[in-house]
Amino acid sequence: MTLPPPAIRLEGVGLDFGGAPLLRDMDLCIEAGRMTVLLGASGVGKTSLLRMIAGLARPGRGRIVASDGQPLVGRIGWMGQQDLLLPWADVVHNVMLGARLRGVRPEPERARHLLGCVGLADRTTARPAALSGGQRQRVALARVLYEDRPVILMDEPFSALDSITRARMQDLAGRMLAGRTVVLITHDPLEACRLADTMLLMAGLPATIHPLDVPPGPVPRMVDDPAVLAAQAGVLRRMLAQ
Ligand SMILES: Nc1ncnc2c1ncn2[C@@H]1O[C@H](COP(=O)(O)OP(=O)(O)OP(=O)(O)O)[C@@H](O)[C@H]1O
User: Fold this and answer.
1) Which domain of life is it from (predicted)?
2) Is residue 8 domain-resident?
3) Residue 82 and residue 192: Cα distance in Å, rounded?
4) Ligand 1, residues 13, 17, 183: which to mutate, most atoms within 8 A of Cβ?
5) Tens-of-pLDDT digits for all 242 residues of the chain?
6) What ipTM goes with this model?
7) Same domain (yes/no): 118, 201
8) What atom of ligand 1 comes closest to residue 44's alpha carbon?
9) Is the CB–ligand 1 distance for residue 133 below 6 Å?
């Protein structure tokens, strides 16, 4: 990373679909170098918000800017529910895909190092079809880390995984993404309470943002931490009350 991770400011952001406002006059500051977790009912607009931050969609009104005044373009990594690995490329070449697409010299040693960090040192020559869902998501995480972007946007990246693999991925992501500006969308209150420095609930139409209490302690928090479990129950209550 060349510049330190920026905060991201949404200023008066509005978005309409089919003539109805999904977001209206939304102001929000996403903290620099911290993990912000976004929760909310299906269809409230979480992915639309993330896509606008990523520059994949334009706000109908308002603007989204980095706190350092520099463009966000080229500083964002994306990780979604689908790993989008190329089936014909082996694991190490999937990790270096971005370099290949940009015409930049790939760095296989760095890719292998990152695969070691995510626990796949012995699978570098495997094809995606030979991997489990959890292993594939670890490759996707290594690919995001290879890109070394200061801002990482994650749209339900672990939701398709079984609960044990999901807990392991949360540990890994919490450790490996520390210090970056991360926005994570999840429907899982436990995941939110384990990973969030800041927790936000998106609700209503047009949607508004409500901060939620975060349990104490550094990320990733333990799955059986009583404060995490109590916060999880509180988050679920808030979501049920929406
Ligand atoms: N390109 C589009 N054109 C029209 N409507 C859209 C478009 N993208 C999203 N929508 C609508 O906007 C609303 C919010 O969608 P969005 O995917 O942002 O919600 P979400 O909170 O991420 O939902 P989920 O949790 O189910 O993924 C939905 O009603 C959806 O149908």
Assistant:
1) Bacteria
2) no
3) 19
4) 17
5) 567 999 999 999 999 988 888 999 999 999 999 999 999 999 999 999 999 999 999 999 999 999 999 999 999 999 998 889 999 999 999 999 999 998 999 999 999 999 998 899 999 999 999 999 889 999 999 999 999 999 999 999 998 888 888 899 899 899 989 999 999 999 999 999 999 999 999 999 999 999 999 999 999 999 999 999 999 999 999 999 88
6) 0.95
7) no
8) 21
9) no
Is 42 part of a structural domain of the chain? Answer: yes
List, edge to edge, every strand of the sheet that includes 35-40. Answer: 76-79, 151-155, 181-185, 35-40, 198-203, 208-212
Global pTM? 0.94
Length of the chain: 242
- Ligand 1 centre to CA of 196 (Å) is 23
Give yes or no for residue 50 CB within 6 A of ligand 1: no
Q: Are 153 and 107 members of one domain?
A: no
Nearest-angstrom CA–CA distance, 127 and 104: 23
CA of 51, closest atom in ligand 1: 18
Whether residues 124 and 232 fall in one domain: no
- The domain of 216 spans 17-75+149-242
Beta carbon of 88 within 6 Å of any ligand 1 atom? no
In a domain, 5, yes or no: no
